[in-house]
Design goal:
This protein is of the alpha+beta class. The chain is 18% helix and 40% strand. It is elongated. The N and C termini lie far apart (48 Å).
Length: 167
């Protein structure tokens, strides 16, 4: 819940709005809706292997995951995917297909996960921001993953790779 109004600085109160208990400002009447954050991830494949990053930040520090991160408020999700891949693995990607959208709740925060299949278009993967290490992994050699959402994407990818006989 929001304790103080970001518009006028007044202490907020809890109100019932559309069957939800939300923070609201008694002075300027601003309502603070609890919207989810949007996250993008990139499934980048090459020769039957997927590019993963060893995370250097929480959550999931020390575990592996797909490159990606939060979408900025003024950014299209595909642009966020391109930016995050440049920041984390120093490559330029082209977003291709949007895979199955996921929604999770972590603590008090809702997240909408937009996993994209992406194609590497420029650069050689290298360690960037928030990353300890990078690696290409085959379906039968996936490392410990930081997030169940990434596990779900990679399970579907593994089935695809095995079905086409690339592994």
């Amino acid at each position: 819940m929001i304790a103080y109004c970001s518009s006028c600085g007044s202490k907020t109160e809890t109100r019932l709005v559309a069957k939800q208990s939300l923070s609201a400002c008694p002075q300027c009447d601003r309502i603070f809706f609890r919207n989810p954050k949007v996250v993008v991830t990139a499934l980048i494949e090459n020769a039957g292997r997927v590019l993963l990053v060893l995370r250097d930040i929480e959550p999931g520090c020390g575990l592996w995951g797909l490159p990606g991160g939060y979408v900025d408020w003024n950014e299209h999700p595909q642009d966020a995917l391109i930016r995050e891949c440049m920041e984390e693995v120093r490559i330029r990607v082209e977003p291709l297909d949007l895979l199955a959208v996921q929604h999770i709740v972590m603590g008090e925060e809702g997240l909408v996960i937009l996993p994209y299949r992406a194609r590497l278009v420029a650069g050689d993967p290298a360690v960037g921001d928030e990353v300890q290490q990078i690696g290409w992994f085959s379906p039968d050699g996936l490392p410990p993953l930081a997030f169940a959402t990434h596990r779900k994407v990679l399970q579907h990818w593994t089935q695809e790779v095995l079905a086409r006989g690339a592994a």
